[in-house]
Amino acid sequence: MSARILIVDDDRSIRRTLEKFLAGEGFEVTTAVDAPSAIAAVTPEIDVVLLDLGLPGGSGFDVLTALQPRSDAPAIVVITARDDMGSTVKAIQLGAYEYLVKPVDIEHLRTVIKRALESRHARAHLDQFVSRAAAEPQAGVILGKSTPIRDVWKQIGAVSTTRAPVLISGESGTGKELVAKAIHSASADRERPFVAVNCTALAPGVLESELFGHVKGAFTGAVADRPGRFELAGKGTLFLDEIAEIPLDIQAKLLRVLQERTFERVGDAKSIQLEARVIAATHRDLALMVQKGSFREDLFYRLRVVEIGLPPLRERPGDIPVLVEGLLAKINRDLGKTVRYVTPTALARLQAHAWPGNVRELENMLTRAVVLAKGDVLDETLLQLGDAVASSAEADAGGSLPTLREVERVHIIRVLAHTEWNKRRACAVLDISRPTLDRKIEEYGLANPKEPK
What we know:
Elements (H helix, E strand, L loop, with lengths): L3 E5 L3 H13 L3 E5 L2 H7 L6 E4 L2 E2 L2 E2 H8 L7 E6 L4 H9 L4 E4 L4 H15 L2 H4 L20 H13 L6 E4 L6 H10 L8 E5 L5 H9 E2 L11 E2 L1 H5 L3 E5 L6 H13 L1 E3 L6 E3 L3 E6 L3 H7 L4 H7 L2 E4 L10 H16 L5 E2 L1 H9 L5 H15 L4 E2 L9 H10 L6 H15 L4 H8 L3 H10 L10
Parallel strand pairs: 1-2, 1-3, 3-6, 6-7, 8-15, 8-16, 9-12, 12-15, 17-18
Antiparallel strand pairs: 4-5, 10-11, 13-14
């Protein structure tokens, strides 16, 4: 018997298109047009549901909520026009197998359905991704529209429903602490403390005391009992930023804490139960450090139960318009300014820059530009950027000459800015066809600043 798929969408043309495609693939297909009929149509025989979020009589979230407790629930693939972090995290928390944004590539959908059917037969494995709490995350939104950022949203939704240790990796300035806070805020323990420790900011001699606390008289200067960060985190989250900087002797003690779930204050024999969830982050290659003997292998695997990798900003230039919009709103609010418009030339220069400091560098540069801006427009004269090609080369090749791909990307960005994204004129300047230009725009993740986000 072939697999059965339920299509839930109030758009008749989308239902017919999907129904025709799936029938051609050999599936048995049924449809529903609103939330109540969708819930009623989900029988144990339904294997996969293709679910829109915007529905009459409720929403796709209502459907997810109704189906979540059922042991025989099908794999649910959300297909929606909502392209934002909050909806993605909430859908994954409510048990969605995948989250796809319209318009959906049919070949990708075919692959997703195949994987969803396979997962249907391994339901126990998916239970760890199901949330019993469907609250919206309260942390700051991680901005972007690129595939890597959407993947991060999905991972946040998945890991926030467990208390498994998480290792967040990525270059400096990519937003590792923001991701840690998003995981905490999306979890059932969001009201508990979030305690962050910057391991590079603490001298090795005081790190142990800072982490585990100490009792009066434990060492010179210990004039009173003091709880450590593990204790202060309680049942919340302890975030260990730049975990690679912890000395080997402290690594051994941290490993024991994670294994035994207990610790002692310095100078005390009384054990304290570890209740906090531990999230660690690093910009260094821990696997390489393990090979060199500067980081414990057993601690590495204990911390990396789940790993979330953050992409550098230079690999997702298409996210820069969204980031600029969000960061400007924050900077204007903080500084009492009203800079709301970025010229196409300025945005093109921002997209062409390599951003070795990633989002943090972008925010600092925008802050400076807003301070210097005379009105509500930010133009290229307010930016302190080196040559785009040279900057990209320095980030990717240690200051060597840029690759042909990098030169092409930067040149296309400049031509599009010069022609104000008139593709006919841009094609004439570049001497390429319109399909080739469209393919290059998609390949390099470029976005027209004048189009709605």
